[in-house]
Description:
This protein has 18 helices and 17 strands. Mean pLDDT is 82; it is low at 449-457. It folds into 4 domains: 8-125, 2-Layer Sandwich (Beta-Lactamase), CATH 3.30.450.20; 132-251, Beta-Lactamase; 257-340, Helix Hairpins; 348-492, Histidine kinase-like ATPase, C-terminal domain (Heat Shock Protein 90), CATH 3.30.565. Helix content is 46%, strand content 25%. With 495 residues, the chain is α+β, with helices and mostly antiparallel strands. The longest helix is centred in the middle third of the chain and has 48 residues, at 253-300.
Amino acid sequence: MTSPKISAGDLVQRIPADLLNLSKEGYFALDRDYKYVFWSAGMQKLTGMSQKEVVGRNAFDVFPFLQGLGQEHIFNRVLEGETLTTPTRPFHIPESGKSGHFDACYYPYRSVNGEVTGVLAVVTDVSEQKRVADLQLETENRFRNMADSSPVMLWMSGKDAMCTFFNQSWLEFSGKPLEKELGVGWAAGVHPVDFQRCMDTYLACFNERRPFEMEYRLLRHDGTYRWILDRGTPRYSPSQSFEGYIGSCIDITERKQLEEELRKSIHVREEFLSIASHELKTPLTSLSLQIQILEHLFAKDGQLSALADQLKPMVRVADRQLRHMANLIENLLDISRIQTGNFKLDPAEMDLSKAIKEIAGRLTELAHQAGCKIVISGAESVVGQWDRSRIEQVLSNLITNAIKYAPGGPISVRLDREGRLAVLEVEDEGPGIDPNAQPTIFSKFQQGPRSKKSGGLGLGLFIVKQIVDSHGGRVSVRTGAKKGSLFRVELPLAN
């Protein structure tokens, strides 16, 4: 007896036409001879083939590519009563120029008495999804290839803070397979001393979605701990949803060792400077005393008066050089104190105006030899809480510099009180300081062209700034009204 045939009319009666034709999916039906008996609007849109071009024709005649997909075997299994779902597969139709990918579900179509009379298929166009998935896969593969070829150790974590990826450089460093490092497995290699700090930093930044940078020791494959600099950054999807972190690690063991050696070298240097300065200062003090005794003898003993006129200039030169050397040694001592944290202040009430007059008096002879005159103006009395010896050091340094670098002209020293500040200005009429050099003039070992010609270590103004800063004040330099240099010191009256 001949098997009943599937009828398009019967199909439309049993399945609403609007469901078949208005759905985004495509629907078609085949009889047992693989001939199309129904072709929905969705299938026409997918393939570019109309119902008139398809219905009544054999499926493999209309679409030869189906043979290559093993579609005949699938149709036969459905005609035997199975329901099948096929994975995503490609299609290309030369007649319409349509191509892409599709998913399909195949159902046996049964007659009223339950006999299978054909195949009913639901086809979904997944071309766009496949394109996006392929692009994502390509991007991921490209990232993995780049990551694995990078000399930097890279890692990624998900929304739960668990690590989901380590590149080849990390795995070569740890000597462990990927599955051992995933999740929190990597943390087993963190040095026990660094572990808690490392975890606290990571989780705190993770919860706040902010970048982090931390250093810790990580066990290498050879059993040694190496210092690692780990930087992590939050990563987001195109829709700006948080996806986890991506991070990079570099081995900084050599840098840490160099830093430690540098710290030791600096400590040794500062210790040497301190000892050397003290040792040098002792014979200088003795020599200075001997010169003072010699000058006293010249003045007292009439028999030496004949030699006095010849020797006094030589004694003055020797005394001046001794003072210069003593000043250099004192600067070295101050640098040592600053570097070792022993730069202390002993503030007490003092009158800054009186200190200016005393320092100017001490430097009168030096100024006279340079053809300079020290002119003091401003407030008669400004009292504050300062370290007297250190403030005198600032005054002496600024006035001495003006004498040294602006010979032959007047040196103006002005003192005023501005609110809760004492303001001191020392101005000369010399060649001034190049504006480009002014921002660095208070740095350690900094010397301008004129300073290099005059000698020195380039420490005086650096120490001036340290003293002023320690008092909570501010020191600056600018070009004066007569094109020379103007140094301005602002000191709080109470520190």
